DNA sequence: TAATGAACTTACAAAATTGTAAGCGATCAG
DNA sequence: CTGATCGCTTACAATTTTGTAAGTTCATTA
């Protein structure tokens, strides 16, 4: 939970007021958010699928990140019509509008991420 | 300082191994880094200039962020030929190669950042 | 030469994020 | 009806990031 009276929080707000790029970044900040969006570009997935594709993530953090992405409108949570209590997550139109952003982040990483050669 | 034995650190490494976009994002993570790059796209600037353009930043944090950007090779610190101990910061070639990334982050923010209308 | 300013650094505290471990309420297969 | 699985939630601790306040060093200015 954020303290909306903290200098930290206030500074973030000011920053978003003077830098659009920083605002965008803030929507993606959180260890796994961006990667979740990348995975969801492939199509809608369930909680357990996402967990399976991100071996190091814990359920707690996965739930947190999904909730925040939903709150900021980038993804949608749908209940299956066939089975109750079965949900799928998918990109919302807003999330899809991030396509170019995600693509350029991926492209730059592909060229400069030496880590990935392992 | 990061503990290279922490689960947190190890998870970040794993993540960069499986997601190029996340690697790119990690190079930009830090409250002011991206905005510093945005400012430096306008041309090289000095410490005090940057401080002046980012009213809310403290000297401590500005110094930290600049040092990290330098360490990751995105910016260069140059000493003035005319006056000793006067430095300017500028984008390195690697930093300039982020142009497309920064541009798409800005573009998305421009459309979706309601905050900025203040 | 004393004062000023630029560019930091240090020690410390607060806040935010992430990880650990366990538990809980459906729903469903058997 | 029973146990298993899915999709979470809770309480707590560790880690990481950011902020506060003060001080330092060197070089220039007056």
How would you describe the overall organization of this protein?
2 copies of one chain form a homodimer. Chain A is mainly alpha-helical and 118 residues long. In chain A, 57% of the residues lie in helices and 8% in strands. Chain A is built from 7 helices and 2 strands. Chain A has helices at 7-18, 20-28, 33-40, 47-53, 59-71, 93-96, 99-112, and strands at 75-79, 87-91. A two-stranded antiparallel ribbon of chain A has the order 1-2. The mean pLDDT of chain A is 93. At the A-B interface, α1, α2, α3 and α7 of A face α1, α2, α3 and α7 of B. The structure holds a DNA duplex (30 and 30 nucleotides).
**Radius of gyration computed on alpha carbons of chain A:** 16 Å
Structural shape of chain A: globular
Measured by DSSP, the beta-strand proportion of chain A falls in: 5-15%
| Tally of DSSP β-strands of chain A | 2
Measured by residues with Cβ under 8 Å of the partner chain's Cβ, the largest interface is: A-B, 47 and 47 residues
The largest beta-sheet of chain A arranges its strands as 1-2
Series of H and E elements of chain A? HHHHHEEHH
What's the story with the biggest beta sheet of chain A?
A: 2 strands, antiparallel
Summed up, the helix count of chain A is 7
Low-confidence stretches of chain A: none
The level of helicity of chain A is: 55-70%
Through-space gap between termini of chain A: 36 Å
Q: Write down the oligomeric state.
A: homodimer
């Amino acid at each position: 939970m954020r303290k909306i009276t903290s200098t930290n929080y206030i500074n973030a707000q000011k920053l978003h007021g003077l830098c659009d790029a920083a605002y965008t970044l803030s929507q993606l900040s959180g260890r796994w958010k961006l990667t979740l969006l990348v995975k969801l570009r492939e199509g809608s997935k369930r909680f357990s699928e996402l967990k399976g594709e991100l071996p190091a993530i814990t359920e707690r953090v996965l739930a947190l990140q999904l909730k925040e992405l939903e709150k900021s409108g980038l993804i949608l949570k749908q209940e299956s019509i066939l089975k109750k209590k079965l949900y799928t997550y998918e990109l919302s139109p807003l999330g899809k509008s991030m396509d170019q952003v995600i693509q350029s982040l991926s492209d730059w990483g592909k060229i400069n991420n030496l880590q990935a050669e392992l």
